[in-house]
Amino acid sequence: MKHVIIYLAALNCIHFNYKQTFAFAFQPKPIKIQICQNKDCCKNFPSKYDGGLPQTIQDLIPTNVKQQNTAVPIQVETTGCLSKCSHGPNVSINDRIFGHINDVLLAAAILEVGVAVDSPAELMAAVEYMANANKSTNVVKKVKFLNSAIESLQKGGLTSTTAMAHALILRADAYLESSLSNPRDADQALEDVTNAIDIDSSLNGRAWRVAADVKEAKGDTVGAMEAISKWAEVNPEFRLKATKELKRLEMTTSNN
C-alpha cells in the first residue's frame, strides 16, 4: 500500500518529503533494555536506590531519548532470569548481556556502550543524591539530599526527566513524613507530587500512591480516592489493594 501511495503521488505530481515517506515506510525496531529481576541479581545490586537497577536505568536516560526524538526509540522493561546468575546483576540490550552492573557508573556506561546514550553529569549526580536519600533514616537529611538532586537536574536543564519526577516523588514522601511534626510540610508534599505527575504520570504508579497519602493527610478524602483509582489504573497488579483502600476511604467519608 505504501508503494501505491508513492506511485500515485508521483503520477499526480504531488510534492512530498521523501525522507518522511521512507521513515514512515521503514520504522526501526525499538532498542529493548531488559533488567533481570531474579533474586540473585536484585540482591547483588548494592545501591539503596529506590526502585533498584530498573529505576536507576530509567532515570539515567535523558528526556530527549524517552520522547523518542532519536532515530531508534528505547524500551526499558524487567525480565526473568537471564541464566547468567554468577555475573549478576545482568542487563540485556537487544539480546547482548552486560553483567556485574552493580552501581550507577556501570549502569551509565552500558547505556553509552549499548545504546549510545550519554547520561549528563548532572543526571548522574542526581541519581547518586537520590540513592543517598534512600539510605538515610533521617527525614531532614533525606530532604537535603533530594534538594541537591533537584538542584542538579535544574542546573543541567533536565527538569522534564523521569529522574526529576522521581526526585519530586521521593521528596513529597519525605515531606509527608515530616508533616507529622510540621503540618505545613504537607503543602510542599502536595506541590511536589503534583509537579511529578505533570512530568510523568505513569512512574510505576508511585506518584499516584503518594498523592493519595498526601491528600488524605490534608483531609481531601475525595481527592485521595481519585488518586488511588489512578494508581490502580497505572499498576493493575495493585487493584486488590486499591479496592481495599477505596473501601476504607469510603468508610471514612460516611463516618464524617
Annotation field: number of helices? 13
CA-CA gap between termini = 63 Å
Structural class of the helices, strands and pairings? Answer: alpha+beta
Tell how many strands the DSSP assignment holds.
Answer: 4
What is the averaged pLDDT score?
83
Q: Oligomeric status of the shown chains?
A: single chain
Taken from the alpha-carbon principal axes, the silhouette is: globular
Beta-strand level of the residues, as a percent range? 5-15%
Percent helix: 55-70%
Describe the main β-sheet briefly. Answer: 4 strands, mixed
Instruction: Give the topology string: H per helix, E per strand.
Output: HHEHHHEEEHHHHHHHH
Rg: 22 Å
The strand order across the widest sheet is 2-1-3-4
Low-confidence stretches: 1-26
Description of the structure:
The chain has 256 residues and is α+β, with helices and mostly antiparallel strands. Helix content is 61%, strand content 7%. It has a four-stranded mixed β-sheet with strand order 2-1-3-4, with helices on one face. The longest helix has 17 residues, at 139-155. The model is unreliable at 1-26 (pLDDT under 50).
